[in-house]
Design goal:
By secondary structure, the chain is of the alpha/beta class. It is 46% helix and 17% strand. It folds into two domains: 4-218, Spore Coat Polysaccharide Biosynthesis Protein SpsA, Chain A (Alpha-Beta Complex); 222-344, no CATH class. The protein is built from 13 helices and nine strands. Strands 1, 2, 3, 4, 5, 6, 7, 8 and 9 form a nine-stranded mixed β-sheet that branches. The longest helix has 23 residues, at 250-272. It is globular, with a radius of gyration of 21 Å. The termini are far apart.
């Protein structure tokens, strides 16, 4: 029976880490280990984890402490500590479904011993009790790892931390780890690199994980760190280009170099729009952008003006506007949003 490791980094999550640990413990069986890494928390996270460990002795739990070095270092520490053949990663405020390990075991026992196993997930807003199934059935062909990689890359299918298991052997063979020092989207980079290297992928068409979305998280507020995302996507593009299994696909190369990166540049700007409401704020924003993300601006300028393969959710006219001038893009989108607001309140 394959051993499975669930790796959970924790930093200042005293109010939710207990729920995460309880859910992981509930789904675990005798051949599952929980690895919890406290990344130098300054609140009561350590005390909550210690209480959990002292109350549960029936299953394998490893509690690792480190000085604060960031979530990537914590996850990499978890990889080094893991004894499992398959590794599952989740954040310190997310929830495994009760049936996760049982369904994964059944899937493996039925012959699906693949480099990666993917399953569905939902998002949950605690403030409103709203649940939305993000992914359940997969459009990509699981018998063809290149096709399912492209399906996820193009946005037809989606995965996130907690909705896949990866063989530790794959990570060791290709030296795959989380990029340390990266403040945003390290998980996306890791997932895409794993997908690009997997020689076999299988899917479980069932919702087995809950991704908790909280107001005030780094992904829900204005933060210049959002512009790390295009840098991450550039690293992914470079990595896939170096992968001889995929480098002869011209359509994929074109998408990676243009539409894939443009998507995340536009997302980064769009996320800032609600906060750029006056000249002072906009001036500060542009100063920070050009001072700290001149490389992102260079990437934008190098994107082809005639993109053949666009992400399906992107409007080609908005893309052309962004490629012409980010300042013009911000001004136009802000004006559009103000006009929409006025129309709504008439």
């Amino acid at each position: 029976m394959s051993r499975i490791s669930i790796i959970i980094p924790a930093y200042n999550v005293e109010n939710c880490i207990r729920d995460t640990l309880d859910a992981a413990y509930k789904t675990a069986d005798e051949n599952t280990e929980l690895i919890v890494i406290n990344d130098g928390s300054t609140d009561r996270t350590k005390e909550v984890i210690n209480a959990f460990v002292s109350e549960h002795t029936g299953k394998s739990i490893k509690f690792v402490e480190q000085i604060n070095q960031g979530v990537s270092v914590a996850r990499n520490k978890g990889i080094e500590c893991a004894d499992g053949e398959y590794l599952i990663f989740c954040d310190g405020d997310d929830l495994c479904k009760d049936s996760l390990i049982d369904r994964l075991r059944s899937h493996i026992d039925n012959g699906a011993v693949t480099d990666m196993i993917l399953w569905g997930f939902e998002s949950f807003w605690p403030e409103s009790d709203e649940r939305t199934i993000i992914q359940e059935k997969f459009a990509g062909d699981a018998d063809d790892p290149e096709k399912i990689f492209k399906s996820i890359l193009y946005g037809d299918d989606r995965i996130r931390l907690g909705s896949f298991a990866v063989k530790k052997e794959l990570l060791e063979n290709y030296g795959l780890r989380y990029t340390e020092g990266c403040p945003l989207a390290q998980d996306v980079e890791f997932m895409y690199k794993c997908l690009s290297r997997a020689s076999s992928i299988s899917t479980i068409e069932e919702n087995l994980f809950t991704y908790i979305r909280r107001k005030g998280s780094v992904m829900q507020r204005y933060n210049m760190n959002r512009f790390e995302a295009p840098r991450v996507m550039m690293r992914i593009s470079d990595y896939v280009h170096s992968n001889t299994q995929l480098c002869n696909d011209r359509e994929l190369e074109e998408f990676l170099d243009n539409g894939f990166i443009l998507r995340h540049i536009m997302y980064s700007f769009d996320a800032c729009l609600p906060y750029l409401k006056d000249n002072k704020t906009r001036s500060e924003f542009w100063h920070a952008y050009y001072c700290n993300y001149s490389d992102v601006e260079s990437i934008r300028k190098n994107i082809s003006r005639e993109i053949k393969v666009l992400p399906k959710e992107l409007n080609k006219y908005r893309c052309k506007l962004m490629l012409k001038s980010p300042e013009l893009y911000i001004w136009s989108m802000s004006l559009r949003n103000r006009m929409k607001t006025k129309k709504t309140y008439r």
